[in-house]
Amino acid sequence: MMKKRKMSIVGIMLLALVSAFIMGAFFMKLHSILIDRGNAHIWDMIYALFFQDITVAGSHGIGIFYVVGTLFMNALRLTIIPLVFTSLVLAMSSISDLKKLGRIAYKGVFGFLFMYFIGCMFAGGVAFLARNMNWISISSSITSGVGDIVKVDTANPLSVIMAMVPLNFFDAISNNGNVLAVVFVAIIIGLCIGILGDKANIVKKLTEEVNEIIQLCIGFLINKLGPIAIFSLIVRAFALYGFDQMKPVFVYVMVTIGVLLVYLLLGYPLIIALTTKLNPFIFMKKISKVALLAFSTASSAPAFPLNLKTNVEELGVSEEIANFILPLGMTINMNGTSIMHIIGTIFIATVSGYHVTLTDLLMMSFLSILAAAGTPALPAAGTVLLFTVMNGMGYVNEMALITYSLILAINKPVEMVLTSLNVVGDATTSLIVANSENELDREIFYDKKVQYSEVKEVL
């Protein structure tokens, strides 16, 4: 007797999404029919049972869907600080060979930061363009009273820098609204662990174990509770706001995939051509198999061995540079993830009634780069950390949380494409650093050595 194949989490999420659309459409229609026929009291009973916000003073309903969705979102928020803290500590502690490799490390980190910056500005520009062209607009359910979010109580923008350094470590980690302070502390501790090396093994081991616990918790949330919560949130969104709330999410997916593909197919080849004078088409042809493997698995880790082999044997990068830059890139270079964060945050903010300025874009780019650099290797990690950027910017009204839940449900195609971007970015930086250190074999890159050896074998 054949065993039944378990449905994958992607299939379960898709089933939850389709079911939620069907059920949401049913409640939309039911609402309309009951109101038109003068049976508003029946709808009030249904609303109280399924959709009531039970935190409102004087509410007497049960609000089943509201309770399930809110508990899920609260649980995700609970993981933000420990996830960001432990992931960034471990990411920074991996930079432990700065003395040994010197210039290679600095060039690698600078290369990653440069591509982060270019990606964030490009993504922000496209998202602003989409907003100005009315591809996305404020949801009709948002009241005109929603104002701009104030990140810091003082008027001077430089006060953000002051807010980064907390007076008390425990105050910082106990407040989800002070993500920047947590990021600052995590970076400092991580770098110190990396410098101390074996002396800090106990602290590093403890951080790794805490990180594993958090990843297990998030995996349980996403894989087990996620489909139920997403079903509840989307059905409630349909019942309260209608199909109008769904349109910007699909626009987000199309715009994000478009930006990722442009950066992958045009951005990286242009960077290669300008910095190394190598033929970018040869680079893209050789690295394409790595990108496809990352795309199919939606994870950088399975593609790492092939990326390393391709860099050394086909691109001509020295083993010393490839063995340092690629593992480092797999840890901290997630520029595809940061592109998704920028577009997702701007879309969520716009739909939810927040006004995003250029200063806000710079701040969310900073938060996104730090969040993306600490992205752990777990399902939907980048999308989970999108919540960190939202939270750090203060975009957390009810509409923002509902829009985020919709993105969480349908973000798999975006994650697959951005993973390809991440691994190709690692290879791009590896090639640039090798070229700058004169440790790039151009004959291997252009296949001249291969052709010579083949001729020699024939003779």
Plain-language structure description:
There is one protein chain. This protein has 459 residues and is mostly helical. It has a single domain, classed as Sodium:dicarboxylate symporter (Proton glutamate symport protein, Orthogonal Bundle), CATH 1.10.3860.10. It contains 20 helices and no strands. The N and C termini lie far apart (58 Å). The C terminus is likely disordered.
List keywords for this structure.
mainly alpha, disordered C terminus, 76% helix, single chain, Proton glutamate symport protein
List the helices and strands and how they pair.
Layout: H1 9-36, H2 40-50, H3 64-93, H4 98-101, H5 103-132, H6 159-164, H7 169-173, H8 179-196, H9 201-241, H10 247-276, H11 280-297, H12 300-313, H13 319-332, H14 335-351, H15 358-373, H16 381-393, H17 398-410, H18 412-436, H19 442-445, H20 448-458
Helix pairs in contact: 1-9, 3-8, 3-9, 3-16, 5-10, 5-13, 5-14, 5-15, 5-18, 9-17, 10-11, 10-14, 10-18, 11-12, 11-18, 12-13, 12-18, 13-18, 14-15, 14-16, 14-17, 14-18, 15-16, 16-17
